[in-house]
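User: My advisor, Dr. K., asked me to get a structural model of this assembly before our group meeting. I'm new to this, so sorry if the format is off. These are the inputs:
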Amino acid sequence: MSLTETLDVRPGEAANLILRQATVLDPVAGIDGVHDVVVRDGRIAELAAPGEGDADGAEVVEAEGLHAFPAFFDPHVHLRTPGQEHKEDVETGTRAAAAGGYCGILAMANTSPPVSTAADVASLREQARAGASVPVGFLATVTRGMEGKELTEMVELREAGAVGFTDDGLPIQSARIMRRALQYQRLCGGTIALHEEDPELSGDGVMHEGPVSAAVGLAGIPSVSESTMIARDAALAAYEEAHIHVQHVSAAESVEILRAAKAAGVQVSAEASPHHLCLTDEEVRSLDPQRFKMNPPLRRESDRQALIEGLRDGTLECVATDHAPHQAEEKEVPFEQAAMGVTGLETAFAALHTELVLPGTIELGLLVERMAGGAAPFGIERPTLALGSEANIALCDLNAEWTVGEDGYESRSQNSWCAGRTLTGRVLVTLAAGQVAFRLRSFSLGVAA
Amino acid sequence: MKHLLAIEQLQREEIEAILDRAESFAEVGRRDIKKVPTLRGRTVVTLFYESSTRTSSSFELAAKRLSADLVSVKAAGSSVDKGESLKDTVATLSAYDPAAIVIRHPYAGAAQMVAGWTEASVVNAGDGKHEHPSQALLDVYTLRRRLGSLEGKRIWIVGDVLHSRVARSNLLAFQRMGAEVTVCGPPTLIPRGIEELGCEVSHSLDRLGEADVVYALRLQQERMTESFVPSLREYAATFQVDTRRLNPRQLLMHPGPVNRGVELSGEAIDSPQSLMTEQVAAGLVVRMAILYELLAGGERPAPVSDGEGAGRPTPIGQPA
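Assistant: The format is fine. Below is the predicted structure of the whole assembly, which you can bring to the meeting.
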């Protein structure tokens, strides 16, 4: 299904503009070259030879030296509404997404109360139509109130528009309930996205278990807490021929299990988060929970390398931010007491470009592909720059250097893992669902750059 | 040195400076009037979020011996009970312009955070399972007095290393002073990866005879219900340091409070090779030295060793 068939966005004016002499890169569509990208009535009308595109009275964006990518898709965002609007809401969260170059996001259901009824979904969709800068879809919980005991009314939730299901924030501890959900999926469809963790093994852990946790005296979350649950659920998904999506993979063992499961034909997709791809548990020596406390935790360099390899060979088909806003008072406390999670929407592309592409670890094309790879696992068409498609474009300056947080955030929260870092590469303009969703203030449209 | 937050941040020279200073305070302790005017007119706040006998009383007495004004805040019965955040509590206390805040907190990194919120010098009196630097310093002081130097000495830290901030600080401090450290305990109570700190790991007391110093740790009763050990009885049978396992030339230490008959036998505690009362006495002079180094260390006058009169107590009402 197309982006806007499944997701909701505030209706607005269809974009009419031309990106003059942009370097256009869409590896999946096989587009790689300098073009005038002509957007008419919100659609990609033409990929003309440089300088040849007919402006026809539309805005002209001088894009020489800038890159146009298919806009990104994030299948893992916490919008915090209902109940925790002091951290984020639909409006601020989708603004942050737009600033990060995203044309679509999926919101998690671990709100307060959790999204467990059709009425919850309907209300959120209404909010999205009223105030979302980019299309947003909502997942509902797998179990009522995320209690892990009884299934939600999954058929009705799907009819109300739930894109899929997740108890993210918590694992589904009971194998029996997990199996029932997978069986029921045959009736209602909808990918089940899984936070994989065995709470028995995680205990009161707050960081990766290893030499750093030993050195700083923080209780550890072992890698096997994640990998054993992925192994269980991959086996259950194979048995029930169901489709699962594994969220925020963090450990090398997990990547191995996913690779083997995929090779065996299990319908399993998986994501990695920018912070797990860029950082290791060495950061936790600082005992700074604002930037470095999240679940799953930052792990060893060997885990990070395994994630990068997974991104390369497609074991991990997408990047997902796990954007988890928290207010200062929930983070300005000692590490063990602090809330888990960091924000990531506004910095994901820039951070991965800086940390993985510029040093030559991965190709730019691979990053662009993985940044939009989160749509397909949920049955949503991948954003593309192919002629005739709805305009979902991220226009980026790959040379722009900026310091994260210097000009504030679009998000309501400031717990960015990149805070204070200087990144190279910045989103200047985002087109989402045929509308202009974002323009960087310092880059004004219609004026020669 | 502005703060004392972790042994991990200290160089050997800084440790030695504090120990040397402590030696000079030991001399003050032998006088009739055990007080020096060094910190007159300055305020020391102790802020304890966890129960403590040795650490809190010795820091308080250390501040008084240095003539500082002392404010002792215990979490129980304070505005912490009313839900005040650590940051707000520190802001409140900082309004009194204290020279030092001595903090104990159940969570790692608390002292370091406090240091970012106040102008005062901050002393970590124990933060979660992270560090307890003043304990490590007093233990090194005690051993240095006994052995002269820790260089090349073999020290075994025995017991619940996983849950012990003392184990972490002491491991680092002993290593900084040139000792070779082995941590010993059941695999459930030894943190995974600790060997990367440069220590050896043993799960048996068989080679305990190699040690010059045996440092035993407290085993809390609740570890049994959490299945870290099957029973206190089995733990004691396997890991209790007793006079049968100790040889007479070995020194025995423990940070206190001891579970008699669990990690140590009563006989071992009371044996002449036990340094436990010396450790407690060292706690006072070392904590005086810590406060001195942080609050007056940049100034030239030493409190006692500068000859006649320099360390003489100042009568009330007269300038120091």
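One thing worth pointing out at the meeting: The interface with chain A takes residues 8, 85-87, 105, 107-110, 112-113, 127-131, 165, 168, 191-194, 196-197 of chain B (CB under 8 Å).

User: Perfect, thanks a lot.
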